[in-house]
Structures are given as C-alpha cells and as structure tokens.
C-alpha cells in the first residue's frame, strides 16, 4: 500500500493520474515532495482531495523510524488530513461525494474483535494506522477506508479541523479518561500542539486548569485560552506550586520527559487520576507504589480516540468552544516544518497546504 514512484516525466504523469506527495524512502534522509501515482479507491474505500494536513510529532517519529515497530518504506506520512471526497469505491455508503472528511490515525479496524464491538477500536490488534502502516495525508490525494473517516461539520475551517483530527481527539480523550469534572483542578503538563487543546477540553468539562511548561510564552498562551493558573517548571517546583492550590484531581501529561510524568504524579491529590499521553524515548517513569496505593491514585494510558471522539471534538469546535492555534505552510516546506517542531519553534501546530 506504500507510495510507488513513477518513472515517466511529471507532465506525462499528470495526465495519467499522478499527484504530489511527501514520500519517506529512508529513516535517515529528509522527506521530500515528489510525483507518485494517485491512489484508486477499492471496495469500501474513498479517494479524498486533501485541503489541509496537520503535522503531528508522530509523523516525525514515523519519518525517522524512532519507534520499535517501524513503518514499511516507502510511505507517505500524515494522519491529520482533511479534504473533500472525490471518488467512492464499490459498496461505500458511509459518506457521499463532496463531503468534507478527516482521515485520522485509526485508518481501519477489524470491526469484529472484542475491542471493536465494545467501542474500543483504538485497541484493535488488526488496526491500520494512517501515515504509518497505510499511506497518509501529506499528499494531494489520499485513499481511506470509508468507515473510519469522520465527517467535518459545515462551518469548521479545514485548517482548524486538521489539528483537531489528532491533537484535538487525543487530548479530548485524555481529558475524558481522566474523569475531569466541574470544580476539579486539572494540571496540563506541556502547552504545545496538544496542550493548548487539552486545557480547553478541561475547561469545557467545567474544571479549572493549571498549565505547566518551561516557557513563559507558552504559559501566556495557556492563560489566553482559559488556564486559571500557570507554573513555569524551570523557575519553581511545579509539585509544590500545585499542592499549594490543593493538589490536582487530574493530570494530563503531554511533555516528553519522564521527569514531567513523575512531577505530575506528585502533584495529584488523593483519589487523583493521571492520564499518560506523551511517549518519551526513555520509556520509563518511577511510580512509587506506596503513594499510589495509599492515595488511591489511578494511572491510565490514553491513545488517540475512537470514532465517537472526533465527532464530539468537531461538534465542540463548530459550537465555538475551542480555538486552534496553528500556522499554515506549504507541503514543500515539510522538512523545515519538522525541524521547527523538533526545536519547539512553532506557536502550537503546523498545517500543511498541498
Ligand atoms: Zn498525531
Ligand atoms: Zn478489531
């Protein structure tokens, strides 16, 4: 299913159905845009003309082959693609031509295993992941399984919908599983592409938010988006600061550092829940058993969202309850965009324009 590079000249390829796409051929080389065959929708599949495609940190991990299970080369990254349905394969009933859809990380699940039938298709062992095990949205067109795309409501800007497709859904789910309620204090660790949305979902749940980051400008953004409290962890101990506020009922950890996870644990009040989202390369945190048991702490891992979560995320955005902070770049700019993300040199999220 990976991208195949055509060998004829670009002009000839245009006529026979080709497209521009970011293709990763090697985990050591910078990904670049090239001409590849335009995909054809098979049974149950659709062809989507991409309008906007968000850049997620996972795309960088995919392009660098950072994770134990690596994508099969060559492949097209991108799991925040949003566009218009241009062709339907045989048997498609879920969407119609002209619909605007988002193509999320969960590109396909079996639909029949215990996880799938209990509404936890994100745990399906037969799942396929967009921009990883199947070609993704860093292209002019993408082929997708019709049952796993999400309709984007009228009035939602595709450049907002793109980051909501992964960053929004992931943090929405993480706040959901944290059990955040009105009158709770939710600590959000790391205010970037994910964190700026996480804090808004905690506010939507009615909770107060304490934002933790190492940079003042990120904390300023958090305040602008509704965080009541902020802590610069490079200046003061966030555990002590949050304990002064009475301790956090829930902590959502989006910073890729084991230290952040340990601090988040320490900041919880009794009965608190810690929602693990970020994936630090070190892959380990120290979890004190005594405090976990005596304080009745819940530690929960949260991976993206099911098909229901993006519907709710889009509904909230259409209702004016969230704001997406993002910057537009051209698809050709993908390599520099990735470098800027790695340096932390972006306002929150980058969205690529094909
Ligand atoms: Zn993502
Ligand atoms: Zn399944």
Description:
Helices cover 29% and strands 26% of the residues. The chain contains 11 helices and 17 strands. It has helices at 10-15, 57-64, 114-117, 158-178, 195-204, 216-224, 238-244, 258-267, 289-294, 308-318, 334-343, and strands at residues 18-23, 32-37, 45-55, 81-88, 100-103, 106-108, 128-129, 141-145, 150-151, 185-189, 208-213, 229-232, 248-253, 268-276, 298-301, 326-330, 349-353. Strands 3, 4, 5, 8, 9, 16 and 17 form a 7-stranded mixed beta sheet that branches. Strands 12-11-10-13-14-15 form a 6-stranded parallel beta sheet, with helices on both faces. The protein is globular, with a radius of gyration of 20 Å. 47% of the residues are buried. Bound molecules: zinc ion (2 copies). One zinc ion (ZN) binds at residues 56, 58, 79, 105, 166.
Largest sheet composition: 7 strands, mixed
Strand-pairing-aware structural class: alpha/beta
**Mean pLDDT across all amino acids:** 94
The global form is globular
Q: What level of helicity do the residues show?
A: 25-40%
Radius of gyration: 20 Å
**Distance N to C terminus:** 21 Å
Low-confidence runs (pLDDT<50, min 5 residues)? Answer: 1-15
Cofactors, ions and other ligands in the entry: zinc ion
Strand content: 25-35%
Order of helices and strands: HEEEHEEEHEEEHEHEHEHEHEHEHEHE
């Amino acid at each position: 299913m990976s991208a195949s590079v055509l060998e004829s000249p670009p002009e000839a390829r245009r006529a026979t159905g080709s497209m521009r796409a970011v293709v990763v051929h090697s985990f050591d080389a910078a990904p670049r845009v090239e001409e590849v065959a335009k995909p054809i929708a098979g049974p149950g599949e659709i062809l989507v003309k991409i309008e906007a495609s968000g850049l997620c940190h996972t795309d960088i991990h995919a392009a660098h082959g950072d994770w134990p299970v690596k994508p099969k080369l060559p492949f097209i990254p991108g799991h925040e693609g949003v566009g218009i349905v241009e062709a339907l394969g045989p048997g498609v009933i879920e969407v119609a031509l002209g619909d605007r859809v988002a193509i999320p990380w969960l590109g396909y699940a079996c639909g029949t295993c215990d996880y799938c039938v209990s509404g936890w298709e994100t745990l399906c062992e037969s799942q396929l992941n967009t921009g990883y095990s199947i070609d993704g949205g860093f292209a002019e067109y993408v082929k997708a399984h019709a049952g796993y795309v999400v309709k984007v409501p009228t009035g939602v800007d595709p450049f907002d919908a793109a980051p909501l497709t992964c960053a929004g859904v992931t943090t929405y789910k993480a706040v959901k599983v944290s059990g955040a309620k009105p009158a709770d204090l939710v600590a959000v660790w790391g205010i970037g592409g994910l964190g700026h949305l996480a804090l808004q979902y905690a506010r939507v749940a009615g909770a107060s938010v304490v934002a933790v980051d190492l940079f003042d400008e990120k904390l300023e953004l958090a305040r602008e988006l509704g965080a009541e409290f902020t802590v610069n962890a490079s200046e003061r101990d966030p555990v002590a600061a949050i304990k002064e506020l009475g301790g956090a009922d829930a902590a959502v950890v989006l910073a890729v550092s084991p230290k952040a996870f340990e601090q988040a644990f320490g900041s919880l009040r009794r009965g608190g829940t810690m929602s693990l989202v970020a994936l630090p390369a070190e892959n380990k945190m120290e979890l004190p058993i005594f405090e976990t048991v005596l304080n009745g702490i819940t530690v929960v891992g949260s991976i993206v969202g099911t098909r229901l979560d993006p519907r709710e995320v889009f509904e909230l955005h259409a209702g004016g309850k969230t704001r997406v902070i993002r910057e537009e770049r051209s698809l050709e700019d993908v390599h520099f965009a990735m470098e800027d993300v790695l340096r932390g040199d972006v306002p929150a999220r980058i969205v690529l324009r094909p």
